[in-house]
């Protein structure tokens, strides 16, 4: 019994130790598998996982470049950058976002529009974790936030560069504005294959020079490698792969003093003025009234301001000088007269009798002077702006001769100015009519239509820029230069300048005698003609021509607003001029919408412009820009 | 005087086992120092945990194995009642009902079950030692199943797994026939679909994620992807202590507790991992050796079970962190931050030491 028990115990022990052995083998096997796994991960695959770990921690961060400045010809800053602090929130580190914003609102001024914009940014920028809640903090606010920083995990105060247009509305249509990059911009950037250069950029030029010179202004984005933690926050800078290269500054041919004189001279009137240096094509003033404050657009315009600008019957966002299409009225007459001389249809002394009207078939075309000007020669026809002379002349020249000759002056074609979005306009001809209209009835050219063309009415539709360029070409004896706003592009680091070379577009073959007649006639206009009063007492010689263009129908692009119909159906006042007559330094075209006679509304503006440019004379000196404010109301 | 004190202190302490444990605890503290760089207080807290656990180990080592056997049944019943208490009015923390409020403090009865279960089953087998039949095994399996299911339903899959492993290792070492083991395995495999249905959503996700971590890289797969990257990027020699990028840039979640092995592995590489495997292997083998030399069935089974518990802990945790096994809440024994498992494990080690100390004394 006892022996059996012991044997039993020994067998039990044997079985137990057998089981222990099995367990030991299982343990060894499992540890072998673990070791194999570690060997696989840490030896065979270690490079792969090392790369993954690097990818995890290293983030290639773009460094946005500083945008170039925009300066006028005298160095006055039209667009610049200034650094200011923004209050940014890192969403992943904030548990109660609304509560945090409420608490922050007790420290800094957070307007409903800031909250609206923040909400919009959150919706738009999925994946982006750090977003600005308030921009342009005051120094006092920065101090308050810094002191309370520990209370707000996930809150950061960051320095950033902001775009600013210190002159506000002045020259707004030239400078344009930048705005946040939207889907259309992205598409454009991708098409141009420069998307990568905008990795760190939030803004892009939207209109004006900001848009046209985007490539120069933007600069080259730099890159740096930074170490980030799992939350995407930057822990430290590892190395700078490529430094950011600032955008180039652009210096304009524009004279901001002249620009301001003109913009003031317009007063409350709508219209446009383009002034060009005839010998180079340099644009001296480029006005479209009314303007707008481009600062409103930089960080997203708020709905109230947007509606006000967009729905205004005055269409302040339209660049009238560049895209507005107008009939030329009597400012077309000097060009008609020149055509007559060049084509041999008239001699300067040949007289035309004006009884006050011209009859073609059953239609009677009236002169603005009901009892007529009697016998007029070419010079007198321009000086007194005789309509009948040009009715007859147009009839004699024929539409296609007119169209061909005027085409040489650039009418009805884009001028090639360095601003995007230019309108081509319409230079009517038989061919144009065939292309433009659909039915054969509409496509036919009627002889009566040629008659109105003679005084710059009818199908004519031209931009003030086109007219100014034609005047400049006339002043420059037929040598036409491409109009340009940018004088040179300057690399801010090296100071290297790339000038816009005067680019002769064409030389219109014109006889000196013909030019002499026309210039003499236009000088007569300012001396004793329709604009004599506006130019009384000028100490320089000048040539001009008034014009009054009938607004027969509202032009396309303008809405019909019943309450405004009367005002908006009034005639446009026009004036073209260049001075001095012998060696023109400036040529210009003015258009004042619905302002009646050119002599009364447009010529005085031209006079002020010429006085300022040629004599440096100005009633009130243009104010120099004030230093940049840290915070601007209504800016965001 | 001091010598006598030290002699008393070292009485009953198994030298080799203690050396291995100290090695593991030291590695654990060093790794924790790196992992808890954002919460340095944890290192001090863990040092206190270690002192407490070692004290309890010493106490357990002084208690003779007979005492453990005597109190095995009441202890088991008490812990089982506590588990019922948890199910009825336990505290819910992190979506799980694991804690029993005791007024002045709260405890996790499921942790106590890790000790109570092997003691209970070993005692049960010991009493029926002469003739172990299928009936005894069936009873043992029932005794194992009830608390395991209760713990799994809290839910606490990790602890349930450890309790089940501790109990099953007793049954296995007690000589459950291979046929039953094979049949049982087949039955378990067959009932997997039913088991699947009983799992919680997050548990299912963990299993699915194991099969393809990239299917949910920012959700359930994130832990596995990031810890595997940490292990793999450690290479042979590791990135060096305090230099793990995955660790210090916070890519590793739970890096002080269940995923501490990712930190260790990233900083010490394959060499460090091998050292850790060797230490665990030594600890387990020492435990199995104690079991082999133990005088009674009870002590053998308890010793073997405790040794194999370390095995389950270590394999499940390292397998999970290196992407071999699904994510279950099992800490790396003696290394992970946290007092509860440390205390349980050290009490187990104390029992092992007691068995080793009393191996020649009792031969009943």
Describe this structure in words.
- The complex is a heterodimer of chains A (636) and B (364).
- With 636 residues, chain A is of the alpha+beta class.
- In chain A, the strands form seven sheets. In chain A, strands 2, 3, 4, 5, 10, 18 and 19 form a seven-stranded mixed beta sheet that branches. A five-stranded antiparallel beta sheet of chain A has the order 12-11-23-22-21, with helices on both faces. A three-stranded antiparallel beta sheet of chain A has the order 1-8-9.
- The two termini of chain B are 37 Å apart.
- Chain A binds chain B through residues 8, 12, 15-17, 19-20, 23-24, 27-28, 30-31, 33-35, 37-39, 41-43, 45-46, 48-50, 52-54, 56-57, 227-231, 235, and chain B through 129-130, 169, 172-173, 175, 226, 228-236, 245-246, 249-251, 265, 269-270, 273-274, 277, 280-281, 284-285, 288, 291-292, 297, 300, 304, 308, 311, 315, 318-319, 322-324.
Spell out the CATH superfamily of the largest domain in chain A. DD-peptidase/beta-lactamase superfamily
Largest sheet entry of chain B: 3 strands, antiparallel
Number of DSSP strand runs of chain B: 3
Whole-number average pLDDT of chain A? 85
Task: Provide the β-strand percentage band of chain A.
Answer: 15-25%
Gyration radius of chain B, in Å: 21 Å
Task: Please count the helical segments of chain B.
Answer: 16
CA radius of gyration of chain A: 36 Å
Number of helical stretches of at least 4 residues of chain A: 24
The largest β sheet of chain A comes out as: 7 strands, mixed
- Please give the order of strands in the largest beta sheet of chain B: 1-2-3
CATH class wording of the largest domain in chain A:
Alpha Beta
Low-confidence stretches of chain B: none
Estimate the strand proportion of chain B.
under 5%
Greatest contact between two chains: A-B, 38 and 45 residues
- Give start-end ranges of low-pLDDT stretches of chain A: 553-563, 619-636
What structural class should be given to the helix and strand makeup of chain B?
Answer: mainly alpha
Q: Cα distance, first to last residue of chain B? A: 37 Å
